[in-house]
Structure prediction request, 201 residues.
Amino acid sequence: MNKGPCRVRCGPAFTSMAVAGMAAALLVCGCGGGDAPPAGGLASVSDAPPAPTDLETPRVGGVLFDSPEEAARQALEFVAEGDAESLSQLALGEADFREAVYPRLPASRPERNTSAEFLWGMLHQRSRHALAFTLDRHRGQRYELIAVDFVGETTDYGPFQVHRETVLTVSAPGGERGTLRVFGSMLEQDGRYQIFSFVTD
Prediction:
């Protein structure tokens, strides 16, 4: 647990097109500022042209919460119990990624040649590894949630928004206060929230 929280409220070789699509997906999937491309390098999602406005985007399913705090409390409870399966079910599912999120990403454009299958596979693998790491470090710890902040940028995709770099301010059983990165981004649609993935780096 990190002391001194930063409280900023809100966020084989690949071809160049595939790498650009992968970078865009990583930004959406919850990577922090440390993974941002260097100046003059790959464009971020926010730098890319807006997604088409004539798409019909279905509502995301899965486990939705009325607030980021509600989602965080549930995630912390499952972390304390070491319940990887229940935690995994809190995150965006494959069907919602393919049907609602992928068509809105710049990486979905035909000239990018980056499939939904490729992006989902990359996201899912990284999310599983990150979740395993989080459970190894915090399993059995009962944290009390104090606040939820998005210290990364928020991107508006029209029907939904992605809030990046979620930081939880918590209190440990002994009273020590600090910050945790349990999950990365959150997706907001119609005022309800879902954990995007458990990728936090």
About this structure: Residues 16-43+64-195 form one domain.
